[in-house]
Design goal:
- The chain has 15 helices and no strands.
- It is mostly helical and about 350 residues long.
- The chain is globular and about 85 Å long.
- The termini are far apart.
Length: about 350
């Protein structure tokens, strides 16, 4: 809360904070991969101190320290007791799915596939959220949102099905390059969409600070024990490395806390339509940053799939804008009708 209040005091446009958040989110995967490459140059007894698991685990701890400073006052016993057992259950499920399972899958995918593939296939999440919202939350979805979602799905399909260059396309080689990394990213997208729907339907009244801290704590603990089970008891042997913590004390607060705080601050100062439009540029920023930081130029499949995904984003944004306009018109019409009704009653009484 203090960070958000400080940001609001600066009198900058809400869009500025949204763009800052989107740049941070878009750069996150590339920065993560770059950190592991830096760690590879500083091997300790044949081990990379900045492994992906160490980045996620220690980065979460650093972020948690900042979250406790920012939101710690919300975790008073009286506030915690106001949360029902049912809310705690859904909060736990959302934290495990969105705070441990999904990040773990994405980080594992980053280790074995291109950042651009992770970014583009990750665009499955918004259409899935739209579908779940329609199916489970009974939210109204217009034609253009549906078409945009279908286009985004098709763009992801092209990304994983087309070959990496035009020559292979002509010769019909290397079709359907759907590897383990792509599968993990797709599963992570489903998990994140499910976590978002649970949060939206069941946890809207849980204070943001309590939600963020609990999700970070539980997600980190679950991820830690899963990694120990899957990779062995010595997997986190380098988590106390000063070299690792030097980077994580920057990575955790900036990527997690500053990014989220800018996003929340921007949401409070702008409309949902503006936030949705700016947020749709995340994959574009991520692809550009991957090229600048990692030198990963998009392949033929990523170009084609990315263009189709971008088309889907544009169609979806058109649908969202149209929905906002219709709602505003309906609200205006209702106000006029109510005003006429009041005027009619006053005129009737005057007679």
């Amino acid at each position: 809360m203090q960070i958000s209040r400080f940001l609001l005091i600066r009198k900058l446009p809400g869009q500025f904070y949204l763009w800052c958040a989107i740049i941070i989110f878009g750069a996150a995967n590339s920065v993560t991969r770059k950190l592991t490459e830096i760690g590879a140059e500083k091997y300790v007894n044949g081990r990379n101190p900045i492994s992906l698991c160490n980045v996620l685990f220690v980065g979460n701890i650093c972020a948690l320290l900042v979250l406790l400073i920012v939101y710690g006052q919300q975790c008073r016993l009286s506030r915690l007791q106001q949360i029902s057992q049912n809310q705690w259950l859904y909060l736990t499920i959302a934290s495990i799915i969105g705070g441990a399972l999904a990040p773990g899958l994405i980080f594992q995918a980053l280790a074995i596939t291109d950042v651009n593939n992770v970014v583009l296939i990750g665009r499955l999440e918004p259409p899935l959220i739209l579908a779940f919202s329609f199916w489970l939350l009974r939210e109204r979805v217009n034609f253009w949102e549906i078409i945009g979602a279908i286009a985004s799905f098709f763009g992801v399909f092209l990304t994983i099905s087309l070959p990496s260059n035009i020559q292979n396309m002509v010769e019909m080689k290397d079709l359907f390059n759907f590897g383990t990394g792509e599968i993990l990213t797709a599963i992570a997208s489903v998990a994140l969409a499910a976590s978002t729907i649970i949060s939206k339907k069941k946890l809207s009244r849980v204070p943001l600070g309590i939600y963020s801290i609990y999700r970070t704590v539980l997600g980190t603990i679950i991820f830690f024990f899963l990694a120990l089970i899957l990779y062995g008891q010595n997997h986190f042997i380098d988590i106390f490395s000063p070299f690792l913590w030097k980077w994580m004390l920057i990575y955790g607060p900036v990527i997690v806390v500053v990014g989220q705080s800018c996003w929340v601050t921007g949401l409070r100062a702008t409309s949902v339509a503006q936030a949705s439009l700016i947020g749709s540029f995340t994959p574009i920023i991520a692809v550009v940053v991957a090229y600048l930081i990692l030198g990963e130029a998009p392949t033929f499949a990523q170009y084609v799939g990315g263009v189709v995904i971008l088309l889907g984003i544009i169609l979806s944004q058109f649908g969202i804008s149209r929905k906002q306009w219709l709602q505003a018109q309906q609200s205006q019409n209702d106000s006029i009708a109510k005003l006429k009704e009041v005027e009619s009653e006053i005129g009737f009484k005057g007679m």
